[in-house]
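Board notes (copied after class):
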Amino acid sequence: MNMVDKIRSVATLLTGSPASPYASASSMRSLDGLIRARLSDNLSQGAARLREHYAQVHQDLAHLSREHPMPSAEDMEHLRQIKRVGEQLSALAALAAALPAPAGDHVWRTLRNNQDLLALLIEYDYSLVQYSATLETLTNDPNGLSMAAFNAPLESIRSLMRQRADLLSAVP
């Protein structure tokens, strides 16, 4: 996907319009807030869905019988994994909401006028939006899903948030 398509994709997903949000410093500042809010919301909603799934699985495991007085070790491990992934999503949601934002428009103007930095920022934004959508899909129907499926998107989001924060803090 070329850069123009990525810009349109990010803009459409976040604003509903394919117009470039990277056109001015003020629109870039607004986009930054939208990205942080959307990412935090998606992660929080995913954590909530996993908490609901955890409660359902826990309730299902609570139906013990004389023949099966204890849940299996595999079932208990799956329950712990659901809880662990939900906690990771909650922690990432908090980090996304607290991502640093540049204080002045001069930083956004510098980014907008430097094609290499702008391309890097667009790549980070696009990837964050895509991984966020992947996690949303995974948490919409976690039944029968291995919790290991969450590892790669979670780690990618963690890494991208760190790289994006480093990029924004390095601009003079």
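Comment from the instructor: The chain is about 75% helix and 0% strand. The CA atoms of residues 4 and 20 lie 9 Å apart.
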